[in-house]
Amino acid sequence: MIEPRNLHLRRAHWAIFSPSLLSYPFSTDYIRDEAHKESVLSLLAELDSKPEIVNNHFASLGNLPMGKYFEQLLFFILEKDARFELLLKNHQLIKDKQTVGEIDLILKDNKTEVVEHWEIALKYYLQSQESEDHAVMLGPNANDNLEKKMIKLNERQLFLTEHTCIPSTFQSYNIENKLFMKGQLFYHLNNRRILPAHTNPCHETGWWCFNSESDSILEDRYLWTIIQKPEWIGHYSCSDNTQLLNCNHLKNTLQSHFQEQNRSVFCIGLLNDDGIWKEATRGFVVNNDWPDINASGS
Questions:
Q1: What pLDDT digit, counting tens, does each position of 236-269 carry?
Q2: Is residue 64 part of a domain?
Q3: Is the pTM of this model over 0.85?
Q4: Would residue 183 count as lying in a domain?
Q5: Residue 132 CB contacts under 8 Å (≥ 6 apart), including other chains
C-alpha cells in the first residue's frame, strides 16, 4: 500500500489504516469493505496531487494538541468520503451553563444507513509490569494509564449521545456508540510481552528502556532521531540525514537530557532505503526512576 507524499496525508493514511489499539465489541475501524478501501486510497491519491490545498487547510487550524490534530486528520478525510455523512463534530454538551462533555463525532454510514457516534482516542502506553492489567499501562510520563481511560470511556464518554442535552435532531436516532482508538503499546525490552486485556493482537508495538539500559537497544546500524508531538503519529521517514544522530551522539544527547529533566524521550531508529531514511525501530528511553518521574538522581 503506497503512502501519500504529503505529511498530513501520510498521517491520515496511518489514522485510517493502522490497526485499532483495543478489541471490544464497540471498537470500530474506518474501512468498511474492500470497495471502500479502494475508494479511500483513490481519495488520498487525489488529495496528494494537490499538496498546497492540504497544507493550507492544516496551517489554517494553527498549532493544535496532538489529540485534536489527530481528530482533524480524520475529519478532513471524512468530509470528502462519499461512504459517510458527517453529522456532528466536536460538539460540546452544555447543561445549566456547565460543560457535560464533548461529542467527538456523529456520522451516518451511507451504505448501511446506520448512525454512529465515535469517541476518538490516540494513545501511547508503556507496560510498566508484566501483567495484562490495564492499570500497568502507563503514559510515557506516567501521568495517566489505560485503566483510567477505559473507566472514563465506559462511565461517560461513550454514552454522551444518551444525555438529555444532546441536540434535538439526534434524540430520536438509534445511535450506535463506537470507540475509534489508535496508537501504540510499548513493552520493556527485557520483559515478556503480555498483552493487556482486550488488546487487538495486531496492535502496533515498540520498546521502552531505562536510560541506564539504552546501550543494549541503541544499535550502530541505525541513524537516530528524537521525535516530538505530533511526529508520534504514523511512521517516521526523511530524505535528509544531516540532522540524524549516530549512536554515540544520541547517547550523549540522552545523558544531557536526563541530567536536566526527567521527561521520557521518544527515539526512532532509521535505515536507508533507496535514499529515503525510513523508520525501523521506535521506543521510549525513560529516566532511571520511572515511573516516578519526579525523583531526583535519575
A1: 999 999 999 999 999 999 999 999 999 999 999 9
A2: no
A3: yes
A4: no
A5: 194, 195, 196, 197
